[in-house]
Amino acid sequence: MWQKNKPYLLLLPAISVIVLLFFGGLFDGLLKSFGYFPAIGETRFTLTAYTALLRSSEFWESLELTLRVAMLSSLLAAILGAGIAISLFMLNKSANSGGTQIWHRLFQLPLTIPHLVGGYIIVLLFMQSGFISRIFANLGMIDAITEFPVLVNDSFGWGIILTYAWKEAPFVSLLIYPVLSRIHRSWRDVARVFGASNWNFIREIVLPVILPAWTIATFIVFVFTFSAFEVPFLIGVTYPTVLPVYSYQLYTSGTLADRPEALAVNIVLAVLTVLLGLVVYYFSKRWNVLKGWD
Amino acid sequence: MKNYLVVTSGILALSLAACAQQDPTSNAEDADNLLVDDWQQVSELAAGQKVNIYMWGGSENINRYLDEWVAPRLKEDHNVELNRVPMSDSQDIINQLLDEKSAAKTAGSMDIIWINGENFKTAKDNDLLWQEFSGQLPNFNDYVDQNAPDIASDFGEPVEGLEAPWGKAQFVFVHDKNKSENPPKSMEELAQWVEANPGQFTYPALPDFTGSAFVRHVLYETTGGYEQYQKPAADIDDLATQLEPMWDYLNALEPYLWREGETYPESLVKQDQLFATGEIGMTMSYDPILAASEVLKGRFPESTRTFVLDAGTLANTHFLSIPFNSSAKAGAMVAINEMMSPEAQTAKLSPENWGNLTALDLDKLSAEQQQAMNDVELGAATLSLDELEEHQIPELSADYIEIIEKGWMENVAKE
């Protein structure tokens, strides 16, 4: 009995903390989003916050921006990440030197930088009076710093998208690389014998092999960028903002009456994230990603 | 293995229990005594207490003044340990207190809070503050003009002893005299200046505190003065129509702002950064001496100067308060009293420390204390205290602010 339940019991302390703090907070948010807020004397359950939200144009514009940013960020990160992983893999297979280790570390560097810091670095580098713009102006490549293209705080969200692409690409490559490293060296030799070029080899063998892990990684990035706050807050524009920032603005706008609406935004975010998570789970089940393929 | 499990579960249970444990010093009886005891007894109770001060942490100067000037002296003179907890917005302090109140947490972690008028009203309406303590503080009784309108009420809300004045602030515009020799003297002139210098002006996106204050100046000057806004918002019929000229002014300004008004800096910190790097030619501050301390630090150019409008700029008093569930009320009282002492207020005035105007009444100070205040070098960027004094106009009542901040999103940012 003890042997059978041991792993669960050992996990108990960690799980209780998560359940208490995480689900506690989520549940509290859910109650408040239904207008149940005893601290200000509201004890009825209503759907007012949700109907107000779905009727406001801010919410829809915000949702559109959030989806656009999350999709483009995850697509770019996926392409970049796969590029990095495959390049490293080919480098490894063709050369047996210590040099590849350095490349590995270099590409993993962005993983160690927190998002907030990353976002701020991008601001300092790319704002019109930023570091790069000044270098250009001093070199005479542009006459005035105002000629430097607007890359941060732009209304399309390119600044946010590029920041995420740069931050998440190493994460994608990190998830793909273990799968790649299982490709036997002999396969490449066999492919060569049959006259396959590098490109044929990548297309016919490497891509199909990494596809499951690649899709999952992209989904994870999508879900993350969908609900992250700090980068859009620093690099976004005042209006429209992504949903997490919109929720923050509602929450901090000073009146307690807006609380339910702010939390309703969070609940909508959480529900969408869970739905996306289920989609990922369904695919991973179907493709047996988590099983070996020997 | 089994032991390990028992230990971890035990630790978890204990830590959860600790969260819920009551602090013996915070029971109601003791707390009520603090309001009638003589100061000597309060000081004795405070000795050895650790006091957490929750405050906006966005200014290096303010943080340094607290950590390096106030805290060591409190430790030395009163054996009170002051621990500063930085918050990104004073609204967060109120949010946390509200949550603690709904969770019925009687031994809170906040002992002193620094809040603005808008938050004060929320806190007062929801009973988040302790009781009327300021009358107990010797420095409040000795040096403060308690009947002055800006001490007796905070953004139109009667203070009733729930908070103690810590300093005064006045809104000033900050500019670079090499870029604009004759700064504008009214909102109308400002609009002309902005049109003549496209891309050189912006203001932080509301609900930023300073951005919101800028918009209030626009309100006063485009809708006929401040007097009418001294009564609650609910008493004005047809407020929406009355605010129209303000939105029109701001929207007319928008195409000539930084980045054509497509976006606004999300905080004053970002706006100051833009000014420091020369991307914009004007910024603003609710602190008339702050520009001088930024020059001292080398962030702002030497040619930085400040100016006020002919019709005056907003001035207010900022206060310190003690939350209902503070676990070290005696220590909090001693710390607040210390921060109101003439020495601490004089140090606070210096741009090298913070550069914040005093909340004390100069006439109540001794000759030496007045001399010490007047000797503080305020820096070339700062206007004289007389000039500031002559151009002060009062804040409006807090319920307008909410209406303006919401309306700004709707009428300006969205357009």
TrEMBL record, chain A:
Pfam families assigned: BPD_transp_1
Subcellular location, principal: membrane
Domain ABC transmembrane type-1, first and last residues per copy: 63-280
Membrane-crossing segments per the record: 7-27, 69-91, 112-136, 156-180, 201-225, 231-251, 263-284
Keywords: Membrane, Transmembrane, Transmembrane helix, Transport
Cited PROSITE patterns: ABC_TM1
Topology versus the membrane: Multi-pass membrane protein
Localization, UniProt: Cell membrane; Membrane
Family, similarity comment: Belongs to the binding-protein-dependent transport system permease family.
PANTHER family according to UniProt: GLUCOSE IMPORT SYSTEM PERMEASE PROTEIN GLCT, TREHALOSE TRANSPORT SYSTEM PERMEASE PROTEIN SUGA
Protein name: ABC transporter permease
TrEMBL record, chain B:
Signal peptide: 1-20
Matches recorded under Pfam families: SBP_bac_8 (PF13416)
Superkingdom, taxonomy of origin: Bacteria
Keywords: Signal
InterPro entries per UniProt: SBP, YnjB
Keyword field contains Hydrolase: no
UniProt-listed Gene3D superfamilies: Periplasmic binding protein-like II (3.40.190.10)
Family matches, as NCBIfam families: PRK11622.1
Protein name: ABC transporter substrate-binding protein
Organism of this sequence: Planococcus kocurii
